[in-house]
TrEMBL record:
This is Immunoglobulin V-set domain-containing protein. The keyword Acyltransferase does not apply. InterPro entries: Ig-like_dom_sf (IPR036179), Ig-like_fold (IPR013783), Ig_V-set (IPR013106). The keyword Ubl conjugation does not apply. Residues 1-17 form the signal peptide. Residues 33-129 form the Immunoglobulin V-set domain. It comes from the Eukaryota. Keywords: Signal.
Amino acid sequence: MNPAVGLLMVLLRVSHAVETYCDGRQDGAQCYGALGGTVALQLMNNASEIPRYNWRKEASMANESTQIILRGKENKLQSNTMSNRSVFIPGNGTFKINNLSRTNSGKFTLEIFDSGGKKTGSRTLQLLVQ
C-alpha cells in the first residue's frame, strides 16, 4: 500500500473517534464539537438531585420551533428526541451526541423545575459544530 494512502486511512479513523467534553453547568458555556465526532456535555452533577428538567434547543430561524431534546424527572429519563445518536447518563448528568452535524449547532437551554412544576432556574450553552 502506498504510504500516503495508509496515513490518510489512519487519519480518517482518528477523526471519526474525536470526542470533546464541555462543562455546561455554568450559564453561557461555549462548547465545540468536531463534524462527525462526539461531544459530551455535562449538563448537571446528578439528575436525581433535580425533581424535573427539560433540555431544549432554541429555534435559530423564524420558521423553526424550539425543540425539547430531553425531558426528565429525578433519575428517570422521560424522553430523548435524539435517542438514535445520543445518550443521557442521569448518574453524572452527561449528554453525549454522536455523529455531530452542523444542524446540531445552536443555543440550548436547561430548565429546572421543583417537584410542584414551578421553574426554579435555567442556564444556556452554545454548541458550535465545525
